[in-house]
Design goal:
The chain starts with a strand and ends in a 5-residue tail after the last strand. Helix content is 28%, strand content 18%. 50% of the residues are buried. It is globular, with a radius of gyration of 25 Å. The N terminus is likely disordered. The longest helix is centred in the last third of the chain and has 23 residues.
């Protein structure tokens, strides 16, 4: 005899089956589109809240513009920040004719670990150390369509600004899409690591809705097979291996671990096939097959899988040994950015292979201050977070793929780093002095998005800013009607482009009201 994971999981699975059957009935769920062999099979979205400037680190400007929009060298609590044109480093990798990724260097090029006198900072070197340039792309100038936090967050998640979702969030689109391929091996298609600002599935089946699992304890409460945890429900979800015939009675039966409730539902559903109108049989078959799949996946011990997943398999990066594996410390320890809990939990979820999608609202920093005096500290903190993220991606590069021999977890995963919007631009006469510089810190809806990992064309910065205004620079976009045009990208274009990386077809596997296109240069 085997045991299921819990009554709650069974109930969630049942709800998902009902919704999925309705969608299948009306033809709203298509079969998985066969993407290329290098397409990702997982998605990780890292959301940094408050509105973040990415351009002081991932620099899209010409040398002439660097001196106008990147302030003179400074420090924030002994953490050096900002760079001159000669200190901007181009990452390795074929850029395909696009502007390559250029990052601001504050480390000592002769010894990146050097912190002598706090004149240098290793933070940011991770993007060089782990060779991430060849498999990363930075999209600049994306119009989020709103200056408001909530509205822009919704826009960043689903492609349409507003207080309510008018389209499913990208995480849910991808989770639903990949579920058709990995239903039998990934029991929880979409996970959010905490309950803050969880994206919405907007009428997709239940499996597309993010399940909030912030810790192993919460995972155990939801899915543990330990009877002592759910004493009142002990034995109510006991499973026994049973032979399950195909819905139409043709072909060989399969062996599935079923509860008594499962077995009864399957028997009754299959029994209706001869007593109902023929038109109902496809709906009944969808319910039957989906329920079999839910029963099969619920029988997996996801708690042990996550507990046994090692978050770190390699030594800490040598350039960052003074910091901690997923932390950055400024100067004399006055300020510290520590993302250890977030990074290690994300890695456990991805390595255990229980899910296809992880959404991480990163709580370590919030960037909405509206105070020009905090710009320096914000710049140092965002660079620190980007370096920590690089170290986590380096760990993913060192982890073999659970599904594809010869590939890594990093190859498997499209990683997106974003915030809800940018902030107003810093502007000044030159880098000779900080005199007459403007350090505004208000909302700017024209944002940047970082993509890294599997399925994208790397080492390219696409787009730019009209730094004296609130518009993005035109980029090449393949519109819905087949035309290729040059225009500034919108959040809907970014969502459509990210979905297409997974082999999802516009207008068939997803739809975003208001119009959208695929941004050229990111998808192979």
């Amino acid at each position: 005899m085997t045991r299921s994971i819990s009554r709650r999981a069974l109930l969630a699975g049942s709800l998902g089956v009902a919704q999925l059957a309705l969608l299948e009935k009306f033809g709203l769920v298509s079969k998985a589109f066969a993407a290329g062999e290098n397409a990702p099979i997982k998605l990780l979205v890292l959301y940094i809240p408050g509105g973040v400037r990415f351009y002081p680190f991932f620099v899209p400007f010409t040398e002439a513009d660097v001196v106008k929009y990147i302030p003179p060298r400074a420090d924030a609590e002994q953490e050096p920040i900002f760079s001159t044109p000669s200190e901007i480093v181009t990452l390795d990798g074929d850029s395909g004719g696009f502007q390559p990724i250029r990052v601001a260097r504050n480390w000592n090029p002769m010894n990146p670990a050097d912190r002598t006198g706090y004149r240098y900072s290793p933070a940011g070197y991770g993007w060089v150390h782990y060779g991430l340039g060849a498999s990363s792309a930075i999209l600049h100038g994306v119009d989020m369509g709103s200056f408001a936090h909530n509205s822009s967050f919704v826009s960043a998640m689903c492609g349409i600004a507003g207080e309510a979702y008018r389209a499913p969030a990208l995480v849910s689109l991808v989770a639903n899409h990949l579920h058709q391929r990995f239903a039998s091996t990934r029991p929880i298609p979409c996970v959010a690591i905490n309950s803050t600002s969880v994206p919405e599935a907007n009428n997709l089946p239940a499996q597309a809705t993010p399940v909030v699992i912030p810790t192993t304890d919460v995972l155990s409460q939801l899915f543990s097979s330990d009877g002592a945890r759910l004493a009142r429900w002990r034995d109510s979800d006991r499973r026994a291996e049973q032979m399950v015939p195909n819905f139409n009675g043709m072909g060989a039966a399969t062996t599935v671990g079923l509860t008594n409730v499962d077995a009864l539902v399957l028997e009754r559903t299959r029994g209706y096939r001869s007593s109902t109108h023929n038109g109902a049989n496809p709906v009944l078959e969808g319910i039957y097959n989906s329920y079999v799949g839910v029963s099969r996946t619920l029988a997996r011990d996801v708690v042990s899988a996550v507990q046994n997943a090692m978050p770190n398999t390699q030594m800490p990066a040598p350039y960052a040994t003074a910091y901690g594996r997923y932390a950055v410390q400024f100067g004399l320890a006055n300020t510290r950015v520590d993302m250890t809990a977030s990074c290690e939990w994300i890695l456990k979820l991805l390595k255990s292979n229980i899910t296809s999608v992880v959404y991480a609202h990163l709580p370590e920093r919030y960037y909405d201050f509206h105070n020009g005096g905090t710009v320096a500290l914000q710049t140092a903190a965002s660079r620190a977070q980007l370096d920590i993220i690089a170290r986590m991606l380096g760990e993913m590069k060192a982890t073999p793929s659970p599904d594809r021999p010869g590939k890594t977890l990093y190859d498997d995963t499209l990683v997106i780093v974003q915030s809800e919007f940018n902030r107003t631009f810093m502007k000044g006469p030159n880098q000779m002095s900080a005199d007459n510089w403007q350090f505004g810190d208000d909302h700017n809806p024209i944002a940047s998005v970082v993509l890294s990992g599997g399925g994208i064309l790397g080492n390219r910065q696409i787009g730019n800013f009209e730094a004296d205004g609130t518009r993005g620079a035109p980029v090449s976009i393949h519109e819905e009607d087949g035309r290729t045009v040059m225009r500034a990208p919108k959040s809907a274009d970014f969502i459509a482009t990210a979905a297409s990386v997974f082999g999802m077809r516009p207008g068939q596997d997803f739809f975003i009201p208001g119009g959208y296109g695929i941004i050229n240069g990111i998808c192979p």
